[in-house]
């Protein structure tokens, strides 16, 4: 019989960095307008250029933006109507500031629970 090692569960890795693409998508969609992806991406791209947050080239950024908008749609924060997208209530919860604040409060609560 071969001895087996005990498997320890590790906490899932969480990136604590700002997601500029999602933040810019949230900023643009928060205006309440409905956008086709081409127009939405144009505004996101311009916003990222102003913040000097464009990296990887325009085509790679277009793919990342499309992936992010699909993720927002699947999570119920954005509604897709035909080829157009519009924000739903709670879109602000997808921003990095909100996500990082929630993560910090969870870490703080876990620290208090141990004490």
How would you explain this protein's 3D organization?
- The protein is mainly alpha-helical.
- The protein has a single domain, classed as Winged helix-like DNA-binding domain superfamily/Winged helix DNA-binding domain (Arc Repressor Mutant, subunit A), CATH 1.10.10.
- Helices cover 52% and strands 9% of the residues.
- It contains four helices and three strands.
- The protein has helices spanning 20-29, 37-50, 58-74, 96-114; strands at 35-36, 78-81, 84-87.
- It has a three-stranded antiparallel sheet with strand order 1-3-2.
- Helix 1 packs across helix 2 (37-50) and helix 2 (37-50) packs across helix 3 (58-74).
- The protein is elongated and about 55 Å long.
- The N and C termini lie far apart (42 Å).
Keywords summarizing the entry:
115 residues, mainly alpha, Arc Repressor Mutant, subunit A, 3-stranded antiparallel sheet, 3 strands, 9% strand, elongated
Itemize the secondary structure elements and their pairings:
Blueprint: H1 20-29, E1 35-36, H2 37-50, H3 58-74, E2 78-81, E3 84-87, H4 96-114
Helix pairs in contact: 1-2, 2-3
**CATH fold-level topology:** Arc Repressor Mutant, subunit A
Number of separate strands: 3
Q: Helical content, roughly?
A: 40-55%
The SSE order reads HEHHEEH
CATH superfamily: Winged helix-like DNA-binding domain superfamily/Winged helix DNA-binding domain
List low-pLDDT spans: none
Give average pLDDT, whole number: 85
- Distance between the terminal alpha carbons, to the nearest Å? 42 Å
Oligomer class: single chain
Structural domain tally: 1
Classified by CATH, the class is Mainly Alpha
Q: What's the Cα radius of gyration?
A: 19 Å
Return the CATH architecture. Answer: Orthogonal Bundle
Shape summary: elongated
How many helical elements? 4
SS-derived structural category: mainly alpha
Read across the widest sheet, the strand sequence of neighbours is 1-3-2
Main beta-sheet annotation = 3 strands, antiparallel
């Amino acid at each position: 019989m071969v001895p087996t090692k005990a498997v320890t569960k590790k906490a899932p890795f969480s990136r604590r960095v700002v997601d500029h693409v999602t933040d810019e998508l949230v900023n643009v969609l928060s205006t309440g307008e409905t956008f086709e992806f081409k127009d939405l991406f144009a505004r996101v791209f311009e916003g990222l250029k102003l913040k000097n947050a464009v990296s990887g080239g325009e085509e790679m950024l277009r793919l990342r933006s499309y992936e992010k908008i699909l993720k927002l749609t699947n999570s119920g924060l954005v509604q897709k109507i035909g080829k157009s997208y519009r924000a739903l209530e709670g879109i602000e919860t997808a921003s990095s500031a909100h996500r990082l604040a929630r993560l910090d409060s969870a870490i703080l609560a876990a620290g208090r629970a141990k004490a």
